[in-house]
Amino acid sequence: QNSMVLSAAILITLIGLIIYLHFVKIDQESLLVIGSLGIQVTSSYASGKESTTFIEMGQVKDVVINEAIHMQKVIYYLCILLQDPEDPQGVSEVVPLFQSSKPRLDCLIEVYKSCQEILEQRKTAPQSS
């Protein structure tokens, strides 16, 4: 009787660990910005699974560093502001980046500067139809 309970507890723990590694534990996050196409955000999980999101450049209004207060300290994170299709001056959605890795502010500033360079090139480049 006790061995069945112990076996069930071990089985449930193993299943929980597999689910955690496959769906929750993110090992690596990457950001690829191509001025003429868009922004690709990829998350690699501990199990090897990858999740990729692509945002077309036409939807991107800006990339900003945002700050929040969490557990009595200020944290910084990079966000993509998506343009509202009905209001060109408005923002329809804020997409946070690097939520699992939580890089330091100096690292975020480097990524922010690179993103802004690409966005500026896109704005100054002649639009072809």
TrEMBL record:
GO terms for cellular component: glycosylphosphatidylinositol-N-acetylglucosaminyltransferase (GPI-GnT) complex. One of its GO terms (biological process) is GPI anchor biosynthetic process. Pathway: Glycolipid biosynthesis; glycosylphosphatidylinositol-anchor biosynthesis. Coiled coil: none annotated. Keywords: Membrane, Transferase, Transmembrane, Transmembrane helix. The chain crosses the membrane at residues 6-24. Belongs to the PIGH family. This is PIGH acetylglucosaminyltransferase. The gene is Pigh.
